[in-house]
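Table S5 (text form). Sequence records supplied for joint modeling of the two-component complex.
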Amino acid sequence: MTTVAEAVAPRAQAGVATRVWRFVKRHALTVYALLAVGYLMLPIAVVILFSFNHPTGRFNYVWNTFTFDNWIHWNSILGIQSAVETSLEVATLATLVATALGTLIALALVRHHFVGRGATNLLVFLPLSTPEIVLGASLLTLFLNANVPFGFWTIFIAHVMFIVSFVVITVKARLIGFDRHLEEAAMDLGANEVTTFRKITLPLLAPAMLAAALLGFALSIDDFVITYLNAGPTQTFPIFVWGIARVAVPPQVNVVASAIFLVAIAIGLGNVFWQYRSAKRTRGVA
Amino acid sequence: MGGFFHRHRGVTPYLLLAPGILWLGIFFLVPMGFLGYQSLQSGIFPDFRFTWEFSNFSTALTDYHQQLIRSFVYAGIATVACLLLAYPLAYWIAFRAGPWRNLFLLFIVAPFFVTYLVRTLAWLNILADQGPVVRVLRDVHILAPDGRLLATTFAVISGITYNFFPFMALPVYVSLEQIDPRLLEAAKDLYASSFQAFLRVTLPLSAPGIVAGTLITFIPAAGDFINAALLGTPNQQMIGNVIQAKFLESLDYPGAASLSFILMGTILVMLLVYARIVGTEKLTG
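The corresponding structure-token record, covering 571 residues in total, follows.
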């Protein structure tokens, strides 16, 4: 590089210098990006790696030997299987209900002008801007004062409450860019309201609803703070981890977390691949 | 659907809203009222009585102002750290990643797919006293021979930073991605250097993302107690730890409720001040 720079006139030399500087800068940023991704992935790698560890003591903090046993006997720890099942049940049920409720709110907010629209927006926004501990605590005081027994249903109620707002935001974003002429065209062609909704509105909304549902499911299955305050004796997987982390951390905890991660990442990668292919196809057409 | 809506314009939106709004009303708004009611009670578990006990608030403040201040300091440092770490990454994904964009976005959200508690516990492995990080830091004398990373303020703030990183990176990315590249070309045509173009064009245009990211990082971070509980000691306890312990261990419901209100009130005041500084438009998008 220097020999080239020395050979050319001073003005061009500056050009080379800037080019070198740009080159370095561009790659510095790329290197940084890769390092940052490494930082994000590091704990995940540790979780997965230590799911194959055969720990010497009760705590799975130091690497010992490689084993598949933890994966084969993932449910050999008392309570872990029922905790995972509870988590899945709550997440499924809460996601279904919250997606339905949230989509309806989003439809009303985007499609209609009505008295109380601002207040509705605020009511949807408020749970998002309240710390989880306060959300959980307030619900706890409601259940305490109303003498509601804590358990599966109080967890379910709490989860629907905090997922709804996320659904509204996700579906709203999709609805805003939605071409209403498609519905009008269907009506002009003689379709009634129900048919139009079923054949036009719902299919167009489906991707957003699915995205919202996946987000809701992920939030539900991962929630600790709100659940912990409203669970009573019922254990979800995060609560199981919290309880056991004080006395021991068996590698089976890592197995379950890794399994959840792998399923989620498989869905994510599938989505990335699908978007990549459809982008390529559209480019091909154009 | 359209026809139905046109004919019943008055009731339809309310019918659509009713189930969801009722749910939020009964399980979000009403509980807030109960929390307020509880915060003004006096007595010892299980015999609480409503006595307009405003002293709960002053007692809570005198007893726990340290944890309260600590929560906001930790959350503030972690938010700034998130911004500094996430901005260049979001910038790279938005402008340089090309066809790899979606894959890198997936990398950003990947930590969310690992159970919060478990990914925080993973930092116990990484920062462990016998772990590689501590060993290297001791060897290069950044840490004293018996120095630790675990059970320190550093560990707690790092944990918060890691756990809330995606909350910052995603909105910043979204705002960067929406910038029209022609604006940057125009800046270059007008003889701006890359750095000037970044400072005068890119950075201001990404401000909404920075504002949104700051809020959705800072608010949950201030209420967090998991990082302090798992990576810290009682000396790193945050306000969330106190509220949680009062509700579930010492059963001091009025004290816990008043602390919850203090936390929420402080955040609200900060939000309003922040809104005054950056402008409400940026805040509500």
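Note: The first strand of chain B starts at residue 41 and ends at 44.
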